[in-house]
Task: inverse folding
């Protein structure tokens, strides 16, 4: 979700196989560099592999270009990597958030074969995506400060995952501003 | 849109919401009727006044819904003639459940929310699945936009847990106008993201004084 010169990216913490919960502290939001984060929902093994491949490509980019990748460029990279596997896809829906030129927030989401969808307000993915659309649409306001953005994102996330049996066990929220990153674990219904 | 020759249902879309208050009940539904990706009409009411303190909103297959409403209205009239009074909301709730389960093996494709005042004058909302399983709650949403709306209602109208003792009321402490504003907000959000919800919103408020109706414009795309 986009705020005033900042963004928030959040995920739940459950890892499960249908009805069985395997882990309650699973990390789904990964850092690419200080101002670029990617969240990957869907198949956990594909999320981890994709993250490792993206970090590899970004490190090469850093060596060649001697700078960090811009979020728009990174989004195109992710889209291309997913489409390479058009007929045997990674079963992941990424959510990308970063601060671009002049610390302008950038967010986008993709389907599992790389169809990019830019948004100005918020993007969602995962099993609770419909609930998240409803909650975010109701709670979002433009130009929220980091503190208010944290509240909004946490409330929307918790309300939505509480209606989904496959998501929950708390939330992991990152608030990224040009100067700092705040990472917080939100306590929610543990079921 | 099914290619099988024997698929007899279709989903006409739409969303219904009800919220119970201390001495009122708000029942709302959009007025769009769709089939597939087309709109059949922007002006179709999903709400049926069954008794003076009891209102039913249903989304799903409108053919089955029309039949269901007709069935219930007829049964209510019979009750009036036999008992010389109108059916109370909890009584209608049980009747609806039984009517739906009667067709357990060829169900009414209807997702219902019944709202009204109980015999003490407190707001009550009953929520159903397609075959009659029901529960009295403080608020509910059914239909294509229900997954978008329920989390927001949970957040704003959080019910106390049913495991608490002594048992607490599920009805919201909000005032009537605040509840109506909340309904307008959630429908505005659902209209943005659900293609089957939109056009107009019909809001029915039931309280001691009677029943009032209000129509609000929603996005038409």
Result:
């Amino acid at each position: 979700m986009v705020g005033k010169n900042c963004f928030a990216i959040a995920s739940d913490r459950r890892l499960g196989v249908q009805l069985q919960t395997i882990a309650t502290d699973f990390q789904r939001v990964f850092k690419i560099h200080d101002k670029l984060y990617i969240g990957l929902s869907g198949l956990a093994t594909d999320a981890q592999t994709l993250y490792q491949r993206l970090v590899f490509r970004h490190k090469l980019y850093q060596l060649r270009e001697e700078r960090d990748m811009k979020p728009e460029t990174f989004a195109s990279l992710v889209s291309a990597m997913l489409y390479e596997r058009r007929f045997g896809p990674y079963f992941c829906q990424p959510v990308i958030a970063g601060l671009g030129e002049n610390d302008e927030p950038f967010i986008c989401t993709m389907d599992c074969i790389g169809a990019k969808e830019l948004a100005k307000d918020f993007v969602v993915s995962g099993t609770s995506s419909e609930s998240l659309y409803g909650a975010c649409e109701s709670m979002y306001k433009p130009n929220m400060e980091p503190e208010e953005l944290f509240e909004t994102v946490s409330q929307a996330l918790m309300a939505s995952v509480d209606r989904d049996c496959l998501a929950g066990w708390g939330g992991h929220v990152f608030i990224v501003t040009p100067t700092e990153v705040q990472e917080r674990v939100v306590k929610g219904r543990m079921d | 849109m099914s290619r099988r020759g024997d698929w007899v249902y279709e989903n006409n879309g739409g969303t219904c919401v009800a919220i119970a208050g201390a001495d009122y009940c708000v029942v709302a539904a959009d007025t769009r009727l769709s089939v597939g990706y087309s709109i059949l009409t922007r002006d179709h009411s999903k709400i049926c006044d069954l008794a003076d303190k009891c209102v039913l909103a249903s989304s799903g297959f409108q053919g089955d819904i029309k039949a269901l409403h007709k069935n219930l209205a007829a049964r209510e009239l019979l009750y009036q003639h036999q008992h010389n009074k109108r059916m109370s909301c909890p009584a209608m709730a049980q009747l609806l459940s039984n009517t739906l389960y009667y067709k357990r093996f060829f169900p009414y494709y209807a997702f219902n929310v019944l709202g009204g005042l109980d015999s003490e004058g407190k707001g009550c909302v009953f929520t159903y699945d397609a075959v009659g399983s029901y529960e009295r709650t403080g608020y509910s949403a059914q239909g294509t936009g229900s997954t978008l709306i329920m989390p927001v209602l949970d957040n704003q109208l959080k019910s106390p847990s049913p495991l608490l003792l002594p048992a607490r009321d599920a009805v919201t402490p909000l005032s009537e106008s605040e509840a109506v504003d909340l309904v307008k907000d959630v429908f505005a959000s659902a209209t943005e993201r659900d293609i089957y919800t939109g056009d107009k919103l019909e809001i029915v408020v039931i309280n001691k004084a009677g029943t009032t109706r209000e129509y609000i414009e929603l996005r038409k795309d």
Notes: Chain B has one domain: 15-218. The interface with chain A takes residues 145, 147-152, 154-155, 185-186, 189-190, 192-193 of chain B (CB under 8 Å). Residues 13 and 134 of chain B are 21 Å apart (CA to CA).
